[in-house]
Design goal:
Length: 209
């Protein structure tokens, strides 16, 4: 499986030069003439951690052709990368058992990847319900002001007749398409259509890097 792009911790620089901490600079300088090596700077404030809310399709169609296993691998990798970047993560699964909040939004831990692999699969595709729950979680995170930019990752093969509205509350949305593109199979292409209507980023799971 190809890797997703690494998630890097954000730093608030605002494009400005570092601010000199004059008191510390003068204490360091003492009675000597001011030199460059005497300069001390204010520490740069870290940006609030990003929230990566993963919404993963575990319906019956995802069990075909190894799609669900591939989606789990991508979700686990996202969680591990978020943990390394110091970001927050949440995981929703939707399938025959309805919508399940597997990981409530919070600081990402590498151990959370193990929870992904425990998710079962089968049944229908309550995508509209899953996005409604995602909207609620994103709105709550924004009200609490506990995170910085929110990313929503939708992992699905798009095999549903529902026409979901664009997710709300996400600063950036990614539709990761797991539709079957193996020889002799017919892809339906719904994920690309949703991404276009939502103004979201579209990626094929087989080429996500």
């Amino acid at each position: 499986m190809q890797t997703l792009p690494p998630l890097k911790p954000a730093v608030k620089t605002g494009g400005k030069s570092p601010t000199i901490a004059w008191l510390r600079t003068l204490l360091t300088k003492g009675p000597r003439a001011l030199q460059r090596e005497h300069l001390r700077y204010q520490p740069q404030a870290l940006a609030a951690p990003r929230l990566h809310l993963i919404v993963m399709d575990t319906s019956g169609s995802m069990r075909q052709g190894g799609r669900l296993a591939l989606a789990k691998g991508h979700a686990a990798r996202l969680i591990e990368q978020a943990a390394r970047a110091g970001d927050h993560v949440g995981l929703l699964c939707f399938g025959g058992s309805g919508v399940q909040l597997v990981l409530p939004p919070g600081p990402a831990r590498a151990a959370g990847a193990a929870r992904v692999r425990q998710c079962g699969g089968g049944g229908g595709t309550p995508l509209r319900q899953a996005l409604a729950v995602a909207n609620t979680l994103l709105a709550y995170a924004r009200r609490c002001n506990s995170t910085g930019p929110a990313w929503l990752w939708l992992l699905t093969d798009g095999r549903t007749l529902e026409q979901p509205a664009a997710p709300k509350g996400a600063d950036h949305a990614v539709v990761l398409d797991f539709d079957d593109r193996s020889p002799g199979s017919r892809a339906i292409g719904r994920c690309a259509g949703w991404a276009a209507r939502w103004g979201a980023e579209y990626r094929l799971a087989s080429t996500a890097e």
